[in-house]
Structures are given as structure tokens and as C-alpha cells.
Amino acid sequence: MADLDAARDGMAGLRDARTGELRQETMVINMGPQHPSTHGVLRLLLELDGETIISCRPVIGYLHTGIEKNTEYRTWMQGVTYVTRADYLSPFFNELGYCLAVERLLGIEAPERAQVIRVLVNELNRISSHLVWLATGGMELGAVSVMLYGFRERELILDVFEAITGLRMNHAYIRIGGVIMDLPEDGAEQLRELLRVLPGRIDEYEDLLSANPIWLERNVGVAPLPAERCLELGVTGPILRAAGVAADLRKDEPYCGYETYEFDVPVRTEADAYARYLVRIEEMRQSLRIVEQALERLEDLPGPVMVADPKVAWPPRLSVGPDGIGNDPAYLRHIMEESMEALIHHFKMVTQGVEVPPGEVYQAVESPRGELGFYVVSDGGHRPYRVKIRDPSFVNLQATPDMIQGQLVADAIAAIASLDPVMGGVDR
Amino acid sequence: MRPEELAARLAERVPDVLQARGEVTAVVERDRLLDLLAWLRDEPDLSLRFLSSLTATDHPGAHPRVWVVYELRSIEHHHRVRVKVGLPEGDLRVASVTGLFPTADWHERETYDFFGVVFEGHPNLTRILLPDDWEGHPLRKDEELGGVDTRYHGATVPPIDRRGMA
Fold first, then answer.
1. Which of A302, A386, A372 has its CA nearest to residue A122?
2. Before A184, cis peptide (omega within 30)?
3. From edge to edge, which strands make up the β-sheet containing A386-390?
4. In a domain, B10, yes or no
């Protein structure tokens, strides 16, 4: 008897208390900010009619750390260590965009060898970033093996990053005027090993997914965003290229000598989540091509990796010791025991650093997620006056409602996965 | 178009065109902003249909106090133009460009959040990165870095230098 009453009470909630009719209103739910498929702390306010999304409002800001404001209180060189932490899956791109902007204000260019190393680490970073997209996106759509494989291969790349820069992420390796130190002695060897292993692994992902009925079901035709709408909403990167627009800043506005490398810009026209998948997979292969060419160039490209100008170059010579990267012992002996002038110079450069002539500049690089822009303003001092990071994740995320309104809740997961937003970049 | 050509083309419409470091900047009065942006967007040889970025810089004590900066990109022609609008102290208002460039929506909200610039005609000009009840606009130059209480579920934790810990 009690069970029957409880059942009646339960039914009562579905009916309007006054008229006794079934209730028709929509339901508003929060997806996130704590949710395994929202790539960090993204919150989506969804209005649902059953399983169908009627409207969506992305809510962001949970990871705002004031990176732009912080740079105004630090020297130009310290700025690198702040911006690298914005989009934490593509740290080299943040460093590169910022340094290129400051170098343009200074009117200098990094030496040839440094440019090639920059290209090399950036393209490896593109692969490691796409691997996280593949791993997390795969997991969210039920392909757990892909998650394990993606992180496994990313680890190989991070090992090389660690050997080169001393750190797995937030490297602060690319600096104003070049890179902080040359590749380690066995660097080329490690990179060759990577180039030997990775192509086969990328083929494996394709074997696993490209014709997989579940993968197709979850991605083909899902979260469409045609080219015209991409451009209106400011969407760039693989999403735009999957909609048929071959926009790639490495080709359109080349930097670091990208115009001298041979590589293709993969384009699809379907403009759905599956097309974005195909574009990113192919981009990893193209990045490997570029890494190979860069590695070849480094073989007979001697030379410094930092500009010679003592008013710009970071003075300490570094080396990788048993506990990571640090000041080279020979250099420490030089400034502490041999040369008072060297010590004074060291002190001036570390505490004040480079002086940048007044002006403004906007420098964009092609990050794994699209146009990563740095609008940098100097008032002529030792600190930036303003550093604005135009992060592609921030702008691309605006397209979420367009992609998922009228679709099912499950498609929202696939849509976000295909957007590949990194909240560190969105919120900065 | 090369920067010199762009600058010459823009000079037809804007009296104040600057060229530096391979970049072209047009400085415009705020009542002419929408006209200019629509022209830049729709002229076939300029075709600056893509708004890359929108932000501001703050210069207390100067006139104008705040510059709002628009970075336009042409996907077809691979060139860029920057447009700047100066806003005087105490009257930080400018027309929203969301009608011309829907992408401006979040950029303008961020600029409002950080600098307090009011974009007139914006469909939903609310804070975007800071909490709704935040006071002030932190990227203004007269706002300090740090020194802000941490608030959580009604409790307040003072900033690290005021916690009385050695």
C-alpha cells in the first residue's frame, strides 16, 4: 500500500498540480564546470527539451589567472614564463608568438639555427597537442584504447621536450632573441627515434577509428559549422580548415622561415566533427614532415641560437645537470670569481632586462587550435605596457551554441571534443 | 596588398593612417567607426572580413584615456589592418561591432570586463572572465596587481601579504 502511494507521489511531479495535465516546460541543466568531458573547467548552461538541446550558453572564467595583467609587472624576458602557461597544451606556441612580437618591436631577428629549432619544437608541440585532443576526445566518445595510445605517444614527445628544455611543459625555452640553449648532444638521435616510431602509431589510430562504425556514428554530420559561419564567429584552425577554407598562418603570413619548408595544409569540406578528426590526423603527419626537414637542416647549420647583442641576450649560460636545467658551472665561476664586469652585466640583465622601444605590434602564429595572436604594446620601458593574448580557444568556444543547438545532449560532448578548447587559454 | 598600398587605399577614407613595422593602423573618431569597419569589410580589394582581435589599452592622465583596438584580417588577401578608437576619460562608450562581426561578442564582453568600456548595442554586455559581482576593471592601469581577497562560500581569505604570517 505504501509502495503504491509512493508511486502515485512520483507520478504527481510530472503533472501540473492545478490542471492535472502533463508538464511541458523545458529543463535547464549545468554541464560542468566539473565534468570529465568539458576539458577542464568549462560550464555549459543547457536548456533541454527531453534529450534535445534548445539553447546553450557557455560560461567561462573559472581558470582566469590574470596572465595579461601579470606581464605588465614583470620584465620583458619574464613575460615568456607567464604566457607559456596560458594554453598549457601548446606552450611553445605561446612563447613563440610573444617572442616574435617583442623581436619585431626591437627590430631584431633570431639567428637561423634558433629559427629552425623553434620550428622543430613547435611542430612537435602541434603533434603532442593533437594527441591530447585525440586521447581525451576518444575517451569522451567511448574509445578508451585511443585515450591510452594518445597519452602513450605524447609521453614520448614530452620526454624529448624534457631532454631539450629540462621541462615537460611551461618550458620558457624560446626567448627574446632566440632560444635559451642549443639541443642536447644526443638531441638529434632522440628526435630521429621519434620520427621512426610516430608515423606507424598515427596509422594505428586511423586503423582503429577512421572506419569504426561507432566513431562514424558519433562524428559524421555532428556539430556542423559551415565556413561562412566560422569566419563570422572568428573560428580558425582545424575547424575552419575542415569547413573548406585553407587558412593557415604558416602559409599565409609565414614566420620563422615556414615558407621554405615543404608541407601541405589538409582541408576537408564536410565541416563536421569527423572532418575535423581527419584534418588533425593529417596535420600530425605534415608536422612530422616539417620536423624531418628541420632536423636535416640542423645537421650542417652551426651557429649561435641567441642574438649576439648583449643588450638583448639573456646572459647566463645554462646546461642540463642531474636535477634539470640550471646555470652552467663554468659560467657561475666566470661571474663570481673572474669578472666583475660580467657580474654587473648579469645583474643588470636579470633584474631589468631588455629595453624595448615604444610601439605596438600584432603577431599571429598558427597554433594547434588556430590563430594565436599577441598584441604587444611598449612605452619604451623595461616592462610590457600591455600584452593581449588572442587565444584561439577563447574565440572558437563562442561557436558552441551554433554547433549544438537542436542536437542531442550526447552530441554536445562530441562537439566540445571536436572544438578542442584548452581552458588555460580561454580564461588566461 | 602590401602595407604601403593598403595605407594609400585607406587614406582615401581616413585622414589618420600610420604605418610602422609592416603594419597599417587607421585612427578613427568613434562616431565614424562602424562606417569605416563596414567599408573595410565590404570593399572587394580590401575584404577585411575577419576580426582577429579586439581589445583596449589604458593611459590614465592622457587624452584619450582608453584606446580600443580592432585587428582585422583578410583571409583571401593575407593582409591586415588595425583600427583604433580613442575614448575620453569619464565617457568610455563606443558602438558595438557585433552587428558587423558576430565574433566581437565575447571580445567586447572581455574588454568591458577588463577596462569598463561600454559597447553600445551589444546584445549581452556582462562580465565574462571575472565573477559577476566583481568590483572594478582590473586591467586599468590604476588597479593594483594582486592584493585582492579570496572569497569562497561567504568566507574571505585575505591576500598572502596580509595574512599575518611571517
1. A372
2. no
3. A359-367, A370-378, A386-390
4. yes
Which CATH fold topology does A67-312+354-427 show?
Cytochrome-c3 Hydrogenase; chain B (1.10.645)
Average pLDDT over residues A301-320: 81
Residues A226-268 have pLDDT tens digits of 999 999 999 999 999 999 999 999 999 999 999 999 999 999 9
Segment B77-123, tens digit of pLDDT: 999 999 999 999 989 999 999 999 999 999 999 999 999 999 999 99
Domain ranges in chain A are 67-312+354-427
Q: Evaluate whether residue B87 is within a structural domain.
A: yes
What CATH number does residue B53 fall under? 3.30.460.80
Split at pLDDT 50, 70, 90, the class of A322 is: low
Side chain identity at residue B112, one-letter code: Y
- Is B164 among the domain residues? no
- C-alpha cell recorded at residue A129: 597537442
Amino acid at A252: D
Give me the pLDDT at residue B27, please: 93
ipTM of the complex: 0.90
Q: Where are the alpha helices (DSSP H) in A272-391?
A: 273-299, 329-333, 340-351
Which residue in B26, B75, B140 sits closest to A230, CA to CA? B75
Read off the C-alpha cell for B163. Answer: 595574512
- Which residues have CB under 8 Å from B43's CB, separation 6+? none
**Single-letter code of the amino acid located at A424:** G
Give me the helices (H) in B59-133, please: 104-115
pLDDT > 60? residue A4 = no
- Measured in degrees and rounded to the nearest 5, phi and psi for residue A376 equal -120, 130
What's the farthest any 2 CA atoms get from each other in chain B? 65
Q: How far apart are CA A52 and CA A26, in angstroms?
A: 10
**What is the separation, in whole angstroms, between the first and last Cα of chain B?**
60
B51 shares contact with chain A (CB less than 8 Å) = yes
How far apart are alpha carbons B44 and B57 in whole angstroms? 31
Name the band, by pLDDT with cuts 50, 70 and 90, for residue A392: very high
Domain that holds residue B81: 3-132
Is there a contact between A232 and B21 if contact means CB atoms under 8 Å apart?
Answer: no
Grid coordinates standing for B60?
590614465
Return residues 112-151 of B near A (CB < 8 Å). Answer: 114, 127-131, 138-139, 145
> B23 at the A interface (CB within 8 A)?
yes
pTM for this structure?
A: 0.88
Tell me, yes or no, whether B141 lies in a domain: no
A428 touches chain B (CB under 8 A): yes
**pLDDT tier for residue A21 given thresholds of 50, 70 and 90:** confident
Split into its structural domains, chain B has a count of 1
